[in-house]
């Protein structure tokens, strides 16, 4: 039945899409809610998921529609959760920066410093995962090699090698002008 419905939707039948939404709305909502743990966010996510489903239907290859829908819902909910976490972290950083500003600092200097920190955080996300952990730990959180090795559950030499390779990666992919 889903295959017939999908074919009708692909040929422009809006009523068929409404039927599909009705059939899968609880599944999509509960899937999103399972990740987000917030009813309002799950409702918003469900609406966005159905838009994604509608626009992605041409790529659907009859590999199990329920599984396909669930995967889209889970991935979208995870994306939302990551964005919320990032926004929350950025707000905390801005709050900390404002509340710990040295007396007499100019507003312009604070804005420049905040922008530079934002850029560095953004650029850190470009690093391969195994490098990002050590760079962030060593340079930003100021952890020792020993602390990083323990936290990452690797040997001390592995931390040294990853930091070395991360520096090489940054030299190759980033220009110094990017940070000035």
From TrEMBL:
Q: Which InterPro entries match?
A: RNA_pol_sigma-70-like, RNA_pol_sigma-70_dom, RNA_pol_sigma70_r2, RNA_pol_sigma70_r4_t2, RNA_pol_sigma_r2, RNA_pol_sigma_r3/r4-like, WH-like_DNA-bd_sf
- Domain (RNA polymerase sigma-70 region) spans 20-87
Q: tRNA processing: is it a keyword of this entry?
A: no
- Keyword presence, Metal-binding: no
Q: Which UniProt keywords apply?
A: Sigma factor, Transcription, Transcription regulation
Show which residues constitute the signal peptide: none
Q: Which residues form the RNA polymerase sigma factor 70 region 4 type domain?
A: 118-170
Q: What is this protein called?
A: RNA polymerase sigma factor (Sigma-70 family)
Q: Which organism is it from?
A: Siminovitchia thermophila
């Amino acid at each position: 039945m889903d295959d017939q419905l999908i074919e009708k939707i692909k040929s422009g039948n809006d009523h068929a899409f409404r039927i599909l939404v009705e059939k899968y709305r609880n599944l999509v909502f509960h899937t999103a809610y399972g990740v987000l743990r917030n009813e309002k966010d799950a409702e918003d996510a469900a609406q966005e998921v159905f838009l994604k489903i509608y626009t992605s239907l041409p790529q659907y290859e009859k590999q199990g529609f329920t599984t396909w829908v669930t995967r889209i819902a889970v991935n979208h909910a995870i994306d939302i959760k990551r964005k919320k976490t990032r926004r929350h972290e950025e707000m905390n950083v801005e709050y900390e920066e404002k509340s710990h500003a040295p007396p007499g600092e100019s507003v312009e200097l604070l804005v420049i410093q905040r922008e530079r920190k934002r850029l560095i955080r953004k650029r850190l996300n470009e690093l391969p995962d195994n490098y990002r952990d050590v760079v962030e730990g060593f340079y930003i959180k100021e952890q020792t090699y020993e602390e990083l090795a323990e936290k990452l559950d690797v040997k001390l030499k592995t931390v040294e090698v990853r930091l070395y390779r991360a520096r090489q990666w940054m030299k190759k992919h980033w220009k110094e002008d990017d940070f000035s």
